[in-house]
Amino acid sequence: MTSGRSTEAPPPEFADAVAGAAPRLGAFGRCLHYFSTVGSTNDVAAELAAAGGAEGTVVFADAQTSGRGRRGRTWFSPTGAGLYVSTILAPARAGDAGRARMITTLAAGVAIVEGIAEATGLRADLKWPNDLFVARRKLAGVLAEGVGDAVVLGYGINVGPSAYPPELSARVTSLESELGRPVDRPRVFAETLAALAARYDDLLAGRFDVILDAWRARAPGCQGARVSWTTSAGARTGITAGIDDYGALLVRTEAQIERIVAGELLWL
User: Fold this and answer.
1) pLDDT digits (tens, 9 = 90+) for 68-121
2) What pLDDT score does 79 carry?
């Protein structure tokens, strides 16, 4: 029991997809919590983490009533239109725990891009720090939140066009919109978990350069894009110059190279 609700049996097609991918899932296939509808999978996973939930615990739902993205933005989560997934990670187990924690979101972004490609053949691009795009339209997002020594890692993927309101269609896209055909949601679920398991192994083993190189290869905007951000001294603008070894975005201004680790960034 969590969030006042009992975990439900996963739909058979999801259970079958997870069973088929089990040898590649590691800890991510051992403890699944499914809800037909829930407020937020990240909130449920955070409650489980605070209660000592096991590393690799997965919470997923067919719909969310209070889904959210970075900086508290609403993540539209209608029934059957997307994937809404959260997991419990323990990056503190890595040899360089501080660096592992900083790179967790980037590792997850790489994994989701890889899982989507494996399941559907669609290639998506990454945008710092946590978004997946296709042709400048947002496809998916990642949200990492600390709970003690654990990290709750959530991701949402727009599978069908009904995953977002029509007024956002110029800025948002879905797997089915891009591919022009139906998409097997259970397979995307299983393949993104399998890719996450592999990249999480890289993270815990300290293979940070492997993760960062994979992220750079999938993030064309991390070099040469014009961006703006706000500091205590006011608005700043510059040109992206890559990411450093800790996953911070580097931006070249007229005066120097700025290192951005958090905050609101506007891509111009």
Assistant:
1) 766 556 667 788 899 999 999 999 999 999 999 999 999 999 999 999 999 999
2) 87
Spell 1-35 as b/e; 16+ CB within 10 A means b: ebbeeebeebeeebeebbeebeeebbbbbebbbbb
Task: Print the SS3 string covering the chain.
Answer: CECCECCECCCHHHHHHHHHHHHHHHHHHCCEEEECCECCHHHHHHHHHHCCCCCCCEEEECCECCCECHHHCECCCCCCCEEEEEEEECHHHCCCHHHHHHHHHHHHHHHHHHHHHHHHCCCCEEECCCEEEECCEEEEEEEEEEECCEEEEEEEEECCHHHCCHHHCCCECCHHHHHCCCCCHHHHHHHHHHHHHHHHHHHHCCCHHHHHHHHHHCCHHHEEEEEEEEECCEEEEEEEEEECCCCCEEEECCCCEEEECCCCEEEC
Domain architecture of the chain: domains with CATH: 12-217 (3.30.930.10), 222-267 (2.30.30.100)
**Cα separation of 257 and 251, whole Å?**
6
